[in-house]
Request: fold
Amino acid sequence: MVLEHYISELLYRYNCVMVPNFGAFLTQMKSAVIHSSTNAFYPPTKVVSFNEQVVTNDGLLVSYMADAEKVSYEDMLKKVADMTAEWKKRLQKGEKLRLENIGELSLNQAGKIQFQPHYNINYLTSSFGLSSFVSVPVTREVLKEEVETIEEKIPFVFTPEQRKTRSFRPYLKYAAVGLLAISLGLTGYRFINDNLGNQQLASEEAQEQVTKHIQEATFFDVEPLELPSISLDVLTVKPKADKKKNVRTHHVIAGAFRFRSNAEKKIRQLKRRGYNATYIGTNRHGLHMVNYDSYTDVDEALNALKAIKRTQSKDAWLLSTK
Reply:
């Protein structure tokens, strides 16, 4: 019988496991931890501690062991008492009592039991499968620190001579550009003035020529030619009205179909019923239209539509075309 084995199993489910006449093993919740120096991440866990002052038997450990070993409660209680007595003797001799997956017990100089827990087992069931790991530090932070260190060791210094030399050259460049712009402006100004003068002279010469021709034309007296008069008799012919163009045809529509085959089928069906059904083409939506009959008299068409709506189909409607 291994007593620490049963204690370890109960620590997964309970926060306190009391060993009669010896002490109690306690667990306390601990949140996740991140160590900035080592970049290590630890999941939430239960920290195990020991209190030798709690020696009252609550029956949890003994009952659990009796059920597992298939013995009576009294027999198991006697076995646990013998085991704890052995533990105390070993501690009195100065030995360290190592409990697997729980921790290590020893006596200090004052005769009190000290406990050092083992961290290889996480008794928090909600953290099952989570283990600690070490993350690689981000490289860009390291490079940033190195650059800052280099800037502190090697500062950038500019002497007055360097600033004077570098600042004087741009002024020379700007001065050269300014002189070039001024020379081009003067040349362009002269060129424009010369062109304007030439245009003005040409305009004055043209005006003189036009005035001269007008003065010469006024010296001639030309009499107008007499033309014989002609009289025409115009016959006005009024076109005759085409009565056929004003005739409208009224169709009592039976339906519009997406496929021409369905329209032909509808025509055969209506003809069997005695109607003069025909195919009248497609509408603007590309549907094939079929009528019950066609009429030139609108009153006759309306009467036929009323009769068809009453006896055949309420969806019939009237279409008028030229």
